[in-house]
Amino acid sequence: MKGFLVLEDGTLFAGEGFGAPAVRAGEVVFNTGMTGYQEVVTDPSYYGQIVVMTYPLIGNYGVTAGDGESRRPWIRGLVVKELCDRPSHWQAVGSLSDYLAGHRVPVLAGLDTRALTRHLRSHGTMRGVIATLKEGEVAGPEQVAAWLEMARSFRLDGAVRRVSTASAYRVPGHGPRVVAVDFGAKENILRELTARGCDVTVVPAWATAEEILALRPDGVVLTNGPGAPTDVPEAVEMVRGLLAHGRLPLFGICLGHQIAALALGASIYKLPYGHRGANHPVKELDTGRIHITSQNHGYAVAAESLPPEVAVTHVSLHDGTVEGLAHRRLPLFTVQFHPEACPGPQENRYLFDRFLALMARAAVSTRSA
């Protein structure tokens, strides 16, 4: 099966297509992770994106029953250099190509993905179309022109509403009550919370501050999710309402970090090609420690726009962008990277322990008030 990738600047890549014949438009981004492709394709933060994997061999350990970060893949397409269709792993329940084909996600193989990545690094993230054709079908100039127009007209609107839970649900525990606002939450965020005994209630992205406070939480987690934080102004207003409470601990992750920054009065800007991978070095300013982090985001907080009461706690060693914030007075801290990893290093899970400690201090303060 023939396959093609057309970028909005008119660049055309050809390769071998896998899965069901399909044509999908999306934002073309690259991920530098060597492993963790199943977690990537099932991460709701990748909604609307065509993901290019820079590591040359993808699919060699197949897919497993427990490695997904949600119930289905969210990517619009996958581009790899070499796709292994005969995986070898004792936990594998099938191949990556069969898994994606079952969800009608097109896969394009046989490209020089590192050359494609250099193109994206030079020209910035682009919109594009991935197309896998029926056997014997040929793509002529008119077809390619139609794909190019499709790419240029693609818009990533309403992404958070498409991936968020439609209604609230509870993951019971015996510890502190935590509300997780689902902007596109990865399952491992919930697993990290429940592993620490938290009684978690997951609410939709459009929940109001009043609805959240009515649940009487000990703390709130603002989760990851796709798209730009400016696309969910109602979430920014919700966070402002929670901040007005004054004593409720808040922990923001990725998109949640950006939404919290907007609520605090900061501004956001789009990165040329984003940070996506499991090997991004981040410096914690208080300790000087360097953490290797898992990341997936296309926007960043403008450090110069932060109010004086908000401190930068972490910075990227790649480009100096803001990777963490903490309020000097309110019980709020956020990180741009993924402390729950999956895929990626596990050294940043301590941030969940920090959140539990923050809730414990807030509880003591409330009782003594």
Describe this structure in words.
This protein is of the alpha/beta class and 369 residues long. It folds into two domains: 2-156, Glucose Oxidase, domain 1 (3-Layer(bba) Sandwich), CATH 3.50.30; 160-368, Rossmann fold (3-Layer(aba) Sandwich), CATH 3.40.50. Helix content is 26%, strand content 31%. The protein has ten helices and 19 strands.
Brief write-up:
It is built from ten helices and 19 strands. It has 369 residues and is of the alpha/beta class.
Strand tally: 19
What's the alpha carbon Rg, rounded to whole Å?
21 Å
- Overall body shape: globular
Largest sheet: 10 strands, mixed
Assign the CATH class of the largest domain.
Alpha Beta
Q: Look up the CATH topology of the largest domain.
A: Rossmann fold
Straight-line N-to-C gap: 68 Å
Q: What letter string, H or E per element, gives the SSE order? A: EEEHEEEEHEHEHHEEHEHEHEHEEEEEH
In the CATH hierarchy, what is the superfamily of the largest domain?
Answer: Class I glutamine amidotransferase (GATase) domain
Structural class: alpha/beta
Blueprint (SSEs and pairs):
Blueprint: E1 2-7, E2 12-18, E3 22-31, H1 37-41, E4 49-53, E5 57-58, E6 77-79, E7 82-83, H2 96-102, E8 107-109, H3 113-123, E9 126-132, H4 141-152, H5 159-163, E10 169-171, E11 177-182, H6 187-195, E12 199-204, H7 209-213, E13 219-222, H8 233-245, E14 250-253, H9 255-263, E15 268-284, E16 290-301, E17 310-316, E18 322-327, E19 332-335, H10 350-368
Parallel strand pairs: 3-4, 4-6, 5-7, 6-8, 11-12, 11-13, 13-14, 14-19
Antiparallel strand pairs: 1-2, 1-9, 2-8, 3-9, 10-12, 15-16, 15-17, 17-18, 18-19
Helix pairs in contact: 8-9
